[in-house]
Design brief:
With 195 residues, this protein is of the alpha/beta class. 44% of the residues lie in helices and 13% in strands. It contains eight helices and six strands.
Length: 195
């Protein structure tokens, strides 16, 4: 079954999909509705034609500017800096943040050949200088690369008259101290708040 093996191989290249999951999905598609399969195939085939980067923030959108940049009810004095477009959806879905976004396109990672020139720092500086931004919220991942990127942002914006903050990192709600790794516990203690 060369066709089935090829489908499993292609599906297993998707992030978070291993061989067993890819096989399960492939068998589901074989036994499923043909109209659904055609619709899914068409959506995959045309996704890159329909979805592109927002010219202002760098998030994925099918309109330009995106729904966040064009929404005049959002707080235009706040700019949340994230690594990837999917981070915009995650933060927006929290319902807590109502400002603008800026997508870097990754994090500084010299081992992978990603330096500041490969990311959208230049447009970040331009937005801060031109856009009436009063606070930049750094929401990079709590990794070595994310921390390096956060420090770089702080450095390039240090002369601007804005507040620079970083999202808190630490123990998740419902987490157990005995299962926390040392780095997470250290971040939690350093980022503690008055109670």
């Amino acid at each position: 079954m060369q066709s089935l093996d090829e489908l499993v191989k292609l599906l297993s290249r998707l992030p978070g999909i291993g061989g067993k999951s890819a096989s399960r999905i492939a068998y589901h598609l074989i036994s499923g509705d043909e109209a659904y399969n055609r619709h899914l195939g068409q959506a995959i085939e045309t996704i890159k034609d329909k979805v592109h980067r927002c010219s202002l923030c760098g998030s994925y959108t099918d309109t330009d500017p995106c729904i966040y940049c064009s929404d005049m009810n959002r707080d235009r004095s706040q700019l949340c800096v994230v690594e990837q477009p999917q981070d915009v959806l995650t933060i927006a879905a929290s319902g807590v943040y109502n400002g603008l976004f800026h997508v870097l396109g990754g994090a500084i990672n010299p081992m992978d050949g990603i330096g500041p020139d490969q990311l959208s720092f230049r447009s970040l500086k331009e937005r801060v200088r031109d856009g009436g931004i009063k606070e930049v919220i750094i929401a990079t991942n709590p990794t070595e690369e994310g921390d390096t990127t956060a420090l770089y942002i702080r450095q390039i914006l240090k002369d601007d008259d804005i507040t620079i903050s970083r999202i808190a990192a630490g123990l998740p709600i419902g987490g157990d101290l005995e299962y926390a790794d040392r780095l997470t516990l250290a971040r939690s203690l350093r980022g503690r708040i008055r109670y």
